[in-house]
Amino acid sequence: MSRYDGFREFMGAYGGQLSRFAYLLTGNHHAAEDLLQTSLTKVAARWPRISGYDQPVSYVRRIMVHDHISGWRWRRRRPENPVPDVPEGSVPDAAESTVRRIVVVRALGQLSPRQRAVVVLRFYQDMTETQVAAELGVSVGTVKSQTHHALAKLRAVAPELADLLHNGSEVQA
Amino acid sequence: MSDTLKSLLDDAANDAKQYDVTEAAVRGARRRRGALVLGPIAAVVAVALVALGIWLPGRHTDHSAPPARPQQVGARAGVDVALGWSVYTTSGARLAVPADINVIHATRDGGWIVLDLDGDLWHLDRTGARHKLASHQEQLVTDPSGTRIAFGAKRSLTVARLSGDRLTDVHTTRVPSGLVVPTLIRTDGAVVLVRSMSTTGSRYDLWRPDHGDYRPTAGHPLYSVDGLTADGRTLVGRTGSAGSQCLTRIDPDHGFTTGGCTRTGALLGVIVSPTGVVLAADTTGYVTYRPVGDGYRKGGRWTLATHGWIRPGYAGWDAATWANDHTAVMFAQVKGGPMRLLRLDTDRPGAVTGITLPGNGIPALADPVTG
Q1: Which value does ipTM take for this structure?
Q2: Is residue B9 part of a domain?
Q3: B 176-215 residues with CB below 8 A of A?
Q4: Are residues B129 and B209 in the same domain?
Q5: Nearest-5° angle of CA B183, CA B268, CA B255?
Q6: Looking at the 3D structure of chain B, how many domains does it have?
């Protein structure tokens, strides 16, 4: 039995979830695939240890977030591809929702990597502020502040979404 | 709001594919384990080679430099191409750029104005000589003739005339806190269109530098302003919402009144040619609109599926540019293939001339000077 068999099983179960997470963090397929491969290479190398953790998928997500943030620093803010892929099979009557998805991903691309991670963890992964803080290794106050700034920026850079993002008062912790 | 945002993110995440990287990760992990053993050996060998003068790392410092004949890209496309830390000219030269390019525009004197990712604004001439014009800037626009520029940071806007590698006739104004960015500048420099972004959406406003500091007004809500007409006095833009857009001409001197409305459906982006022809990207490809009377007439269409493209522009639909009034160029990626520089000729609807772009950098096109 290979030391990587368990890792393959893990990916069979969580590959889709982690792919979607990578896509939201990066905003395009190429970068998502790169991020996932980079992070999973580290995970596979340490799989015997990671597999013993209570929540391996949470640990993998954490590696992805940190790789995403540190990769951004390393690349010295190279421009991200602001154009999400147009879904295959797009049809005209789905154009509005397609444009909305593109606007969402493009707006996320305007956030800093850390803000983006906060938004994805907080709202896509349904984590509490405390959980996000633990995931990122920052204080709860930092998460609150990053969330506030991220949402303000999302409304500003994606005025098309402002109404959708505005039909409530405050985000609950 | 959290439910709405979750729903938007769920929807966006559905565009993800299942990236099959498991085996690649396993191979990478095996190599990493191997490197733990081989690394020290490799380091010793490298030191030995350097000592012997056989291998001199660092001689080639441009990490994103394309490996083969990039000059052909520019020459055949009819435009200069900026890639990573270099500009490749139509004449075949490769010039180093001070830093990673964020925005690049051609200037009337044949050079470029470059805003790099560190926020430094540079003038670069055709010999490669460079001169820093400003620091800590975030936005840059030029007029269609390449003689006036406007740039902005968080709290200021500046408009100036480009005189060689110097800025003259400089006017700077403070702007209120928030996101107020220059969008277009008229060739005479008398009017700068600014976009003010707030929680309630974008509004457009004018700053007339000859009249003093910018005084914000309530602004005018438009979906988008995309370019200027040939006379430089009328804006080409869109009204409506994301799913139902209307291509129209807008008169900023008379209360942003709009002309006839040409319904276009959902457009992803629009670029306006020197004489007002519109190239629009939608979810299925590109389409041209020619000004006719008060409106626009739909012209040629280029369909994504026909050419196997997976997106309307690798660096964004706004990275497309008009080389002249009949030719537009843009980057696109072909499914299963490399990123390509594409040329669309409006006289040949549907036809595409593709030029393989070497390298893996994220390129930008230098908008050609008109007039």
Answers
A1: 0.79
A2: no
A3: 178-179, 197-202
A4: yes
A5: 40
A6: 3
